[in-house]
Amino acid sequence: MPTVTVLQGPRSVELKRALVNGITDAFVDTLGVPAASVQIWIQETPADSWGQGGVLTADK
């Protein structure tokens, strides 16, 4: 059973649905696994709780 963890900033429910669908389709198409076996965990972090290149994402 494939398990995918996505770490990202907050997104709308509509975008998360599309992401889960696309990731599931990729596993089904590539590995031939049943869609029901693909688990996807989305962990969202607010922009004031992560940074890149020495800059807090909220400050960009």
From TrEMBL:
Ranges for domain 4-oxalocrotonate tautomerase-like come to 4-59
| Entries under Gene3D superfamilies matching the protein | Macrophage Migration Inhibitory Factor
Print the keywords alphabetically: Isomerase
Matches recorded under InterPro entries: 4-OT-like_dom (IPR004370), Tautomerase/MIF_sf (IPR014347)
Highest taxon of source: Bacteria
Q: Which family does it belong to?
A: Belongs to the 4-oxalocrotonate tautomerase family.
Q: What is this protein called?
A: 4-oxalocrotonate tautomerase family protein
Originating organism: Jatrophihabitans cynanchi
